[in-house]
Amino acid sequence: MAAITVVSVMSLASVSAASTVPAGAAPIPGGGGSEPAAVSIVPAGVTPTPGRGSEPAAASVVPAGVAPTPGGGGSEPPPESPLPPGAKTFGSSVKLAALKRHLGMLQAIADANGGNRAAATPGYDASLAYVAGKLRAAGYRVTSQEFKISFFRETAPPVLERKRPSVKTYRPGTDFRTMTYSGSGKVTAPVQGVDLVPPSAGAPESTSGCEASDFSTFVRGNIALIQRGACSFQTKAEQAETAGASGVIIFNDGRVVRGAADRKGLLGGSLNTSAVHIPVVGTDFATGEELAAAGTTATLAVDAENVPDRRTRNLIAESRWGDPDRVVMLGAHLDSVVAGPGINDNGSGTAGILETALAAKSLRTKNRLRFAFWGGEELGLLGSKYYVAALPPAERAKIKVYLNFDMIASPNHVFGIYDGDSSGTAVGATPPAGSGQIEKLFQAYFTAVGEPYQDAEFSGRSDYGPFIAIGIPSGGLFTGAESIKTADEAQKFGGTAGVAYDKCYHQACDTTANINDRALEVNGGAIATAAFVYAYADNLPRDSNSPGDPGGPEGPGKGAVTPGKAGTGAGGLEPGHGHEHEHGGLLG
Q1: DSSP code at position 340
Q2: Which residues are identified as catalytic?
Q3: Helix, strand, coil % (nearest 5) of the chain?
Q4: What is the largest CA-CA distance in the chain?
Q5: What pLDDT does residue 195 have?
Q6: Is the omega angle on the peptide bond into residue 56 within 30 degrees of 0, that is, cis?
Q7: Which of 545, 529, 543, 549 is CA-nearest to residue 69?
Q8: Interior CA angle at 381 toward 539 and 137, to 5°?
Q9: Does the pLDDT value for residue 17 go beyond 80?
Q10: CA-CA 20 to 30 A from 134: which of 2, 57, 200, 530?
Q11: CA-CA distance, 539 to 537, in Å (whole number)?
């Protein structure tokens, strides 16, 4: 998920002029100057969930029954060692019932606000206020960070229909999906392939549509059919429009690089800006292959609204304990798509880090805990990109590890751990040194609780992307999006082969009924366990940035990402995203 262009940004702004930050306690760098107001947490008629409202007791060091690690935390365990004392116990303190209460609140907020919690909408603002209220009551320093975005939504269902050689109507959300920031329009025209390459095992990515020369024989007015790969969707669409295309269809490239379903499923993404004025959609490989047949004519229609200069916010909460120069940061995006309430994507990740923060409210940690709830992720990682860009170098250096949680309770789930040591992926970028340690920690947790796991592609297509781009070791969990579960995965994790990990991905049916309780519970424990380990660790992942670290060989500038061609391995997205979500793949 590639470099994101924020349409415009503004200086940090707080929600309320009345700050509740104690005298002498500086707000977190890059955040707003005051805490969000405690009013209007949820819409009228929505009852907040009970509990966790008290300030931390000064005498309480760890929750009852949790033993601190020796010497205030001790060093992070080597991969082959058990988790340190207290870590698994603290992880088990995050209960399924509490996680589901948060999801119920987010569902109620969406129901009261037009069915979604999309960035720059009332549903998002109410979600942010709910989270802020919980964290403020638990004693955290809570600040907000405001920025401008270009808001995108579809105003009518898109259309893709083959007219010749035979009629076939393709299904939105199943066979094709509108790219975020697509232009609007309706056209019926011949479909012309652009530098298409038949997929084969081990073949390099297609460069279809990446260069002007690819369109040297393109007939103006035709619909351009382009393969995923090698450059951003934005580049492909702009090149096509310049060549006179009346519409663009970008299809998954069909290569098999990790499993039978890989690079064949439905492709979604973002153009990152609203500079393209023709309809642009993504499709699965089978649809693209059908449309590539000689003599094909199709109708393509997109009706969408691009609104510049809408405002939305990130929410940042920081503990009052621990070394402020050694920050352990956890993040999850708070926004949904416009189409639905986003309870798995990403209410699940939100609930996971929120409940972890509440459970950790009384921990007198060695290192400083910071929790981020990102806005604008569904429009292209806008919140996390803005946050990282706003941090001065000295503040960036304080962040020793970043953990990201996006879709952790998919109904047909697998347990995916971001592949921080690149042992099972080839995504065209070297993860920052130290990322492999994070992967090993999560592996140790899953082993300890008796659950299987597998690698998840670590390509930068969620909010960890901006962090790995500046060399911050990162990791996290992912249970799958729109891609199809394989037979091997079904045998390993249960569930149904041949069905998407999340069949309600980016749809109105992504409700509380779209959650796998076991995945939510296990991953909630994993989040809390990792937070505990790093909160007390003497040695954090960024401390060991050196050649030979499990995060991969040292890149330019210690621990920096080494990009290949823009978007390599990222579905045509430059290193950073482009989601609507095109989440990273899962690896067997």
Answers
A1: S
A2: 377
A3: 25, 20, 55
A4: 76
A5: 93
A6: no
A7: 529
A8: 65
A9: no
A10: 530
A11: 5
